[in-house]
Automatic annotation (TrEMBL):
This is NADPH:quinone oxidoreductase family protein. Its EC number is 1.-.-.-. GO terms for molecular function: oxidoreductase activity. The keyword Oxidoreductase applies. It comes from the Bacteria. CDD domains: QOR1 (cd08241).
Length: 327
């Protein structure tokens, strides 16, 4: 099969090579799927650079989530059949940026009929992260104010839709007028272009000085530090990631005197600690998709030969929504 391979570490455009590789074979509890769609995710960028917490042995094919059609089953696999359309995580080194990929049955789920291949592939990591973050970790309630950073990106766009579905008032922060238009289309009640406005002042003005009840922060660094200035009494700051490139330090005395919580979220740990909750989350997301309450924003659909450039655009921070390889 043809697949993109990383044999040395560096920027995605420099190290991804489209080559012929041996077809994957399923081990016990595994599936081989024909890849129908695979979105670019920031972990793909970090793995190309060797900066992710998971460091696959070289060479490997990135593409950490996908939608595929089952073509082979390993021993002990129940609940799936050849021909099923599924979504979930890839088992590296056979990630989703190729014609075939390897998946664990335990982290594979039926693809929602309401979504096309590119949308279904994008429902897994970003939307599961948003669902666990907003509902299980932050306890978002209807009527609360949710502040979402990078609201036009893959992770942020999911949080905007999930926040609206939960009945929250959503303030989205973006960089530039194009991304502002995307955030409005996603349903954000208030959109802040951080290049033109100070989101701290906007949040205070929009909440009568109270601040945001929940802050969804996948950016980190200065964005986190400034968010502490506009979080509400008994508010919750969700630390989801550090796409801005700098891991911040938390001033715990500030959290004490303002009475807010700093809540970490590593969604991948739920596969080990509470796999039933992951399945429950997928059922909830499937229902929301069927209702039209959530639909992943796919801004670019790439042919196989365009994958390296698409992943690099994500790395450069110039994308909106999801950039997805579609076979």
């Amino acid at each position: 099969m043809r697949a993109w391979r990383v044999a040395e570490l560096g920027e995605p455009r420099d190290v991804l090579r489209l080559v012929d590789v041996t077809d994957p074979q399923p081990g016990p509890g595994q599936l081989v799927v024909k890849v129908l769609a695979c979105p670019a995710n920031f972990p793909d960028v970090l793995m190309c650079r060797g900066e992710y917490q998971v460091k696959p042995e070289l060479p490997f094919t990135p593409g950490v989530e996908l939608c595929g059609r089952v073509v082979a089953l390993g021993a002990g696999v129940d609940g799936f059949a050849v021909g099923d359309r599924v979504l979930g995580g890839a088992v590296l080194p056979f990630g989703g940026f190729g014609q075939l990929a390897l998946m664990d049955a335990a982290t594979t789920f039926p693809a929602p009929a309401a979504l096309d291949d590119a949308e279904a592939a994008s429902l897994y990591i970003g939307y599961q992260t948003g669902w666990f973050g907003l509902h299980r970790r932050a306890g978002l309630r209807a009527g609360e104010t949710l502040l979402v950073h990078a609201a036009a990106g893959g992770v942020g766009s999911a949080a905007v839709q999930l926040g609206k579905a939960a009945g929250a008032r959503v303030i989205g922060v973006v960089g530039g007028p194009e991304k502002a238009a995307v955030a409005r289309a996603l349903g954000a009640d208030v959109v802040v272009d951080r290049r033109q406005e100070d989101f701290v002042e906007v949040v205070k003005a929009e909440t009568g000085g109270r601040g945001a009840d929940v802050v969804y922060d996948a950016v980190g660094g200065e964005t986190y530090q400034r968010s502490t200035k506009c979080v509400a009494f008994e508010g919750r700051i969700l630390v989801v990631g550090f796409a801005g490139g700098r891991i911040q330090s938390a001033a715990l005395n500030h959290a004490l005197v303002k009475n807010y919580s700093i809540v970490g979220l590593h969604w991948g740990l739920y596969h080990r600690h509470d796999p039933a909750a992951v399945a429950e989350c997928h059922r909830a997301l499937t229902a929301l998709a069927a209702q039209g309450a959530v639909r992943p924003l796919v801004s670019q659909r790439l042919a196989l030969g365009e994958v390296a450039d698409g992943v690099q655009e994500l790395a450069d921070g110039v994308t909106v929504g999801r950039v997805v390889y579609v076979s």
